[in-house]
Structures are given as structure tokens and as C-alpha cells.
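Researcher: Good morning. I'm working through a list of sequences from a screen, and I'd like to move beyond sequence-only analysis. For each chain I'm collecting a predicted structure so we can compare shapes side by side. This is the next one on the list. No need for commentary yet; just the structure.
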Amino acid sequence: MPDNQYQMRDFFCSAKTEVPEDEAPAKSKELDKLCQREVEKSIEEYLKAREPKSPEAIEAIKQWEEHQEMISKVDNIKAEEQQAKQ
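Model: Good morning. C-alpha cells for this chain:
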């Protein structure tokens, strides 16, 4: 496929567990983050498996990885703030 064409990819994750009703909101957030991380891993693996053909593609991958790193740092800060409140 030429570099200037796009190909659609679907990434999906699902997780479930049984918990007491009062723990459901917190567990739901945990499972959501778990699924987000799993999808991000799948995307990273997919991108790494594709050999970039142009400097623009290499730069786009670099920017995406930096963005994911920033999201991870923000998530860690939020988790620390949440723990400090408890």
C-alpha cells in the first residue's frame, strides 16, 4: 500500500469482574484504564511491526509515543492525587 493511503484498523478490549455494588464505580474506572492500556499496547505493537517508509511516518510515530507517555504521566499524577485524598 502506498504511503499516502490509509488503512483502517480496529483495536478492542473488554474486561469484566464481579464486585460488591459499592465498589462498582471504582472497579469500572480500573477496568476502563486496563482496557485503554491494552489497546494502546496493541496499537504500539502494530505501529512497530510496520516499518516506517518516510521521515513523516517516523515523526508521526514519535509524536504518538510522546503523547502516550504524557497521558501515562497524567494518569499517574491523578492516581497519586486520588490516593492522597483517601
